[in-house]
Amino acid sequence: MDSPDEPSPPRTQTITGQCERCEWDVVAESYPAMVKAYQDHLRESHPKLWLRT
Question: Where exactly are the structural domains of the chain?
Fold first, then answer.
């Protein structure tokens, strides 16, 4: 059991996202990381949609 004097480990906050066109989803540590993952997914899986965004 942890001692009250020991600092607790830092919490990591996560952000989730999903694609409305398929079952793809992502868990990222920041909003910019989530947006990048989504853009990468669109480019790879839905290139016509990615070109319009």
Answer: 19-52
